[in-house]
Amino acid sequence: MNVNENYLKLPGSYLFSTIAKKVAEYTAANPDKDVIKLGIGDVTQPICPAVIKALHKAVDEMGTPEGFHGYAPDLGYSFLREKMSECDYKARGCNIEPDEVFISDGAKSDSGNIQELFSEDAVIAVTDPVYPVYVDSNVMGGRTGVYDEKTGVWSNVVYMPCTAENNFIPSFPDKVPDVIYLCLPNNPTGTTLKKDELQKWVDYANEHDSVIIFDSAYEAYISEDDVPHTIYECEGARTCAIEIRSFSKNAGFTGLRLGATIVPKDLKRNGASLHDMWARRHGTKFNGAPYIVQRAGEAVYSKEGQKETKAQVAYYMKNASYILNGLKDAGYEVYGGINAPYIWLKTKDNMTSWEFFDYLLTTANVVGTPGSGFGPSGEHYFRLTAFGTYENTVRAIDRIKKL
Prior knowledge:
By secondary structure, this protein is α/β, with parallel strands linked by helices. It has twelve helices and 17 strands.
């Protein structure tokens, strides 16, 4: 039997699996060390009371003949799709209808699965550095060509470098891609684009018949008024953009798993409706979320839910501010932390990303994420997350300042 050889092209293990393995080995060899983890982007605050209340109510319903729910509808329950259409889009002046909202079991799943809509010879472009799932899933889909271990570059991927020299804002690629991945606010750099800057990307995509995959997982952390919360705030985005949304970072659903992908009915390529294609995929490869989880998602939009989840976002941004200012005081070159829960820093003494990982782990007992894991332009950079507890965040940064 033959296997999908595209999987065999993937270098090493998944970034965060490698980190977990290294940390486990270190703690096993040094059980007396108090290791603080500011690496993985997992939340640490308990789910808010409004959501817990909704979960309990939905569980009780499931225990009655009248309230029992089996398989969720292909697109998701209308009560959640309507809330998202109303609160996330129409409230911002964006005409996104409920039947253009596809509920799923998380943004990560959709980020990896969305590439199935495109042909094997489609050319993808990614900002560099960026969330590794975009490239990895396209490797699995057979689009990325040959991997160069020395440079960390795939031969068929169009990279759009984001460095200190261009303020981590990508330029239009030299080669016109079929699919453009934009994550804003960006993971890992924390970069955002103002509305007029994002509008240029929408215009570019429409002009060249490209499709933008817009990951807005961190939109709840945007603090500046001129930064759009959705790509559909830009004129013409309905004909070129798919948006992926998450409940993990704004409402702490990393353990519940809930997300959504927006595919407008106006988005067509080569006469085919990407909306209809995605709907067909949902029906075949069902990746919806259970009834009780979707009711929990609905509760996020309640008055109490909005107040409580915004308080959690503020908690993490307080952490981000402490990290940002603490590293500045320690003499580090730092970015992000304003519109995103991530701080992007230049490594000390021009260390490689993994050398700096080992340095922080062994000297300060602090875990972060090597920048090279997000792409070749991430080398000599490092990411720290604000998703720890405030107490651990303070302890971690104080340790780094004493090095």
